[in-house]
Specification:
Structural class of chain A: mainly alpha
Number of strands of chain B: 14
Number of helices of chain B: 23
Oligomer: heterodimer
Shape of chain A: globular
Structural class of chain B: alpha/beta
Number of domains of chain B: 2
Strand order of the largest sheet of chain A: 1-2
Mean pLDDT of chain B: 87
Mean pLDDT of chain A: 87
Strand content of chain A: under 5%
Largest interface: A-B, 53 and 57 residues
Low-confidence stretches of chain A: 345-351
Number of domains of chain A: 1
Strand order of the largest sheet of chain B: 8-11-12-5-13-14
Number of helices of chain A: 16
CATH class of chain A: Mainly Alpha
Largest sheet of chain B: 6 strands, mixed
CATH class of the largest domain in chain B: Mainly Alpha
Distance between the termini of chain B: 73 Å
Low-confidence stretches of chain B: none
CATH architecture of chain A: Orthogonal Bundle
Shape of chain B: elongated
CATH topology of the largest domain in chain B: ABC transporter involved in vitamin B12 uptake, BtuC
Largest sheet of chain A: 2 strands, antiparallel
Number of strands of chain A: 2
Radius of gyration of chain B: 29 Å
CATH architecture of the largest domain in chain B: Orthogonal Bundle
Strand content of chain B: 5-15%
CATH topology of chain A: ABC transporter involved in vitamin B12 uptake, BtuC
Helix content of chain A: over 70%
Chain lengths: ~350, ~600
Amino acid sequence: MDLSIAAILAQDGITTGAIYALLALALVLVFSVTRVIFIPQGEFVSYGALTLAALQTQKFPLTSWMLVAMGVCTFVVETAGVLRHSERRKLAGRLVPTLAGKYLVFPIAAFFVVRALAPMNLPMLVQIALTMLLVVPMGPMLYRLAYQPLAEASTLLLLIVSVGVHFALTGLGLVMFGAEGSRTQAFSDANFNIGSVMVSGQSLWVLGVSVVMILALYFYFDRSLSGKALRATAVNRLGARLVGIGTVQAGRLAFTLAAVLGVLCGILIAPITTIYYESGFLIGLKGFVGAIIGGLVSYPVAALGAILVGLLESYSSFWASAYKEVIVFTLILPVLLWLSLTSKHVEEDEE
Amino acid sequence: MKNKYFLIFLVVLAVLPVLPAPVRLPEYWVTLLNYIGLYSIVAIGLVLLTGVAGMTSFGQAAFVGLGAYATAYLTTAYGASPWLGLIVGVIITAAAALVIGAITMRLSGHFLPLGTIAWGLALYYLFGNLEFLGKYDGLNDIPTISLFGKELASGRQMYYLIWIVVVLAVVSVKNLLDSRPGRAIRALKGGGVMAEAMGVNTAWMKVVVFVYAAVLAAISGWLYAHLQRAVNPTPFNLNHGIEYLFMAVVGGVSHVWGAVLGAAILTVLKDYLQNILPMLLGANGNFETIVFGVLLVLLLQYARDGVWPFFGKIFPARRVAKAPEQADPLGHRAKPAVGEVVLTLDKARKEFGGLVAVNDVSFQVKAGEIVGLIGPNGAGKSTTFNLVTGVLQATRGEISFLGERIDRLPSREIVKRGIGRTFQHVRLMPQMSVLENVAIGAYLRDKNGLRRRPQGGVWSSVLRLDRQEEAMLLYEAKRQIERVGLGAHMYDEAGSLALGQQRILEIARALACDPTLLLLDEPAAGLRYKEKQALADLLKKLKDEGMSVLLVEHDMDFVMNLTDHLVVMEFGTKIAEGLPEDVQKNPAVLEAYLGGVE
């Protein structure tokens, strides 16, 4: 391996690493706010990528149907909640129309907008916007349907729920997108020469968007009130509730952000590799390895860990490409050993 | 186990494949039953792991794969006997589980399942890429198992071997749980701190359970390889690992039979869905995962105990461990003579950052003496208590017990030396009976006194070789329960007792440790007047028998009438010490309790 190959591998590694980093941040965010280990994060990657791919081939993305279906389920669950609660039932006249607007009218409107626009040759930004419109609302709806009824359960139980959700979403992905993979158009065909190394425009896009997102998240958590509320919920759920922060809203917000980041990763990665309905899972898990390096608590360490995973993957695909997944996922063992040796944490009993 | 339902189950199992022609079980159902059996074995391990011990693994399929590939490789490449394949497979699996378990057990509960996800994925890709394991094509032409000279070539013949293993697995897990190490395992979920204080090495016990579940999976893999006569990586991927967990959860994760039920439900359902869903959707694929996923989430939301409780109702209630009428006594440790110094704190100090919670506190407890540690809220009493019991480590100073330093020891070593304790916030296993709760206290003991291998005993309890010892332990627990006056509640669930009785139960559990020194953290809190009197009488009786007691208490009357010696703390510092009547007149104490006169 000479220097130029090393540089190309490094570029690849950092590019995919940046995508893993975004996922790692989303995972840490969801875990710290809701204690949910969000295995289905990766499904948002494949849903985003494949929805965009459908739009680019002027097909009607079937995720629109799924959005409507999830909207209907959420509406039913929420309305049942209102009607069962004696206090809230008095307000039903006001609450139910709001719910209908959020969970019925909005998804159906999105459905028809997409159906009208899908056959047209749209500019890429509009395609991306439509993809976001279809997939991102699934995040909070998923929280409402699967997790919110179990919000106070143990981490372990929530993890099992996550795996169930992952199973269901992967199966639905197969129904909606079929077994064939897709790639999307690159954002940029430009190439730049820096010294002897060629840097692709696509890599620069990925890096740029990742850095912008990380900075945006930083400012959001550090400066905005709702970001601070999320942080407060992460530190102490009961305390947050006592000062008037709704933990349900916090959970919904965390899942919305996770969905945004997931879809964004899908959009960023789809021009680089072919995405299948189940690819998101492995991509998400690599984000996980990064997040675990950060102990599921530290944002910067998680991001650095994810970049490390990307680099490791890129170099191992050169040295021993068949064993690349083995190497990446075995990395978790020394990391866990290190965490185990350095943690002074006395296991207080959960449940 | 010895009930008629179990016998009927065994008879039905035995005659199913050999029924005569008109009602003969079709080959299809024999195959399905074989798979149900194979999956049950894995799911039983998961019930032990998840339902009982409160851990989870998504990587069981990888352990099944290890067991299958080990025997497949040895029998095809070297012509070895399948039985050698079994042994090697079990050893490799146990070693792998030991490593993964040892690495993750000290971390919070969710790192083990995450670790097993990564491990399951890595092993799948490893199987699929290794030349000598046939890459993704796998290995073919695996020989059959021969048992007593008979070749088990057909599914109908394998059926018996598979279901014998299932029944053995169920019985072994049931035996294990109904024993001394079993009680420690059942305390892992929600009672870790308590179990440590009773002498259980909880991290090691978790590893033992994890290895046990992995070995069951490996045995299932061995059977699978010789039933299929071929292996490839697909059945050992992560998705199957997740399905095993589904089986345990659907059946009922805290019931051993639930594993068999869950395996049956999911296997039949999957078979049905795989036929019907592709027809409905007009495409091929594993669409059953959608139904499984949604089903799992709904079950966890609405019926967390799975399906088994609905079936379990028709069976007699679970047999509760009964104490024998008579049994040999357990060994006792040698007790120091009355008046001898038992516990010494020498300038013990605990700092939390800049805060000095315990400021160079020194005092002694002598054998046959009741010492009270009192002081206003925030005085550092509980911190001092935690220093002695090993829950916290002293920043400086020495704590010694019978001449031996104990301030660097973990709590399970401290109890081994003869310090029994209770907790300020009661820590019991609410689902277990009073008797079993107290028996946890005797965890470290056997007929000679202290056990030489306290964390061992798993094998002898699986094989039921521990019955004599179990009788002695339960008899001792019964004796202590009667000693503290809870005899009427012996077989009640501990969670059903009133708070005051739960505190007394904790004292009985501490007594079952055969302590030299009894540490009681606010034993009278929440007790009614009569109960306090009974407690005081009990403590006086214990004292007369030579027991030393150190108690932290708020109730002044209780302390003044009971103790021989008082230590008063305020703001982390000892402000007075002496006889109760002298301490009562001490101006510093009066000021601390009643406020000074300016």
